[in-house]
C-alpha cells in the first residue's frame, strides 16, 4: 500500500508540473467550464498529495485516522476550514498552526523544489533555499490568467543519512524552510543526504553536483537486497533526477546512469513504475536529439532484456513481480520478436475460443492487455473485427479499455481512420472512452500522432458538441 501511495505522489508531481496546474482554492461551481475533467483530476491528486505532506511535520501521526475523526465529528454540521486544520495542529503536537503553514500550498498553483548547496569552508553544513518547479517542455501555465513565477511555500524539509534504516526518531530531522528566506542545516559527516524522507512532502530536492556523483558511485556498489530494502528512497531519487534533467538542472547521461544502476537487477514494481513514467517521456523526445537515440536504445533494451529473462513470460511469482512483468513485457514486445510471437500465439488461441468465457479464462488478467495489443498488431482485419465485437458487447469498463487500446494497434491505414471516426459516435463509446481512444492512437508513433492531430483539429466542432 505504501508503494502505491508513493506512485500516486509521483503522479501528482508529474501532473501538476506537466499538464495543467491549478490552486486548491474554491472554484466557481456555477460556471460550465469550472470543473473540467483535467481540473478535477489534478485537484484530486494534488489534494491527496498535500494531505500526505502533513505527515512530514510528524510522521508518527496517522493522517488517515485524523481525517476520519474529522469526518465523523462534522456529520450533520457545517464545519469551517479552520476547524479542520486545528484538529491536525492539536493531534500532531507541533508549535505552528497547520492552517497557516498550508495556506501557500492551497492558494498557489504548482509546487517548489529545495536547492541544497554546499557552503565553502563548512563541510558539515549545507544551505537550503527554494525555487518553483516549472516543466518547460510540457507546462501550459504560462498564460495570462496564471503567473509563471513569484511563488514560494513553507516547506517541511525532512532529512537523514542516505540508506539510513530510519527505525528511530533520532534518524529523522525536520526544518520548516520559510517562504521568504534560506536556512542552513548541520548534516555532520554525511556525504549523501536523503531529503524528503519517504516522499511525504509535495516537493522535489536538487542536490549539489558532487552529491549526485556520490549517489551514483554508492548505488553502483549496493547489493540487490539493499536496493530492494530502500526502494522508496531510490525511487524518489530517480524521479527527481529525471525531473531535473527535463529542466536542464541535471545532465540526462547522469540521470540515465543513476536509473540504470537502480533498476538493472531489480523486479521491484515501485522502481520500474517510476522508471516507466519517466523513460516514456524521454522516448518522445528522441527525434529532437535531446539524447543520442542509439545509446538510449541500447541502454533501455539491455535493461529490459535482463529483467525479462529473469521474470519470463508466464504470470508467476510474487504479486510485486507480476505487476513488474506487465511493465517490462510491454517494453520487451516492442523490441523482441520472440515476445511478439508469444503474444500472437496466446492472442489467436484466445480469440478463436468458442465462448467469451474461455477468452477471459485462458489469459492471465495481468497480461491480457499486452497480449491483445501485440496480437492485433500482427494479425489481419478479421481478428481486429472480432476484438471490435468484444468491445461492443462488453459492459465492464476495464475490459472495454483493454479492447479499445488493442484496436489502436492495427497497421491498416483504412482501419486506423475507422478507429478515429468511432470516437465521434456517442452511442458506441463514452466521452472518456473517446478521449482514451484518441490518446491510444496518438501514442503509436510520430506519423499516427500527426494524423490523429489532423483528425481531431478537423473535427473540433463535433468534439465540442459531444
Keywords:
single chain, 466 residues, alpha+beta, three-stranded antiparallel sheet, globular
Compact summary:
With 466 residues, the protein is α+β, with helices and mostly antiparallel strands.
Give an overview in words:
It contains 21 helices and seven strands. By secondary structure, the protein is α+β, with helices and mostly antiparallel strands. The strands form two sheets. A four-stranded mixed β-sheet has the order 5-2-1-7. It has a three-stranded antiparallel β-sheet with strand order 4-3-6, with no helix packed on it. A hairpin with a 2-residue loop joins strand 1 (112-119) and strand 2. Helix 1 (2-18) crosses helix 2 (37-53) and helix 6 packs parallel to helix 9 (252-263). The longest helix has 19 residues, at 293-311. The two termini are 38 Å apart.
Strand content: 5-15%
Mean pLDDT score, rounded? 83
Largest sheet: 4 strands, mixed
Number of helices: 21
List segments where confidence is low: pLDDT < 50 over at least 5 consecutive residues.
Answer: 29-35, 165-169
Shape: globular
Provide the spatial order of strands within the biggest beta sheet: 5-2-1-7
Written as H for each helix and E for each strand, in order along the chain, the element string is HHHHHEEEEEEEHHHHHHHHHHHHHHHH
**Total number of strands:** 7
Radius of gyration: 24 Å
The level of helicity is 55-70%
Q: End-to-end span in angstroms? A: 38 Å
Could you say which structural class the secondary elements and strand pairing correspond to? alpha+beta
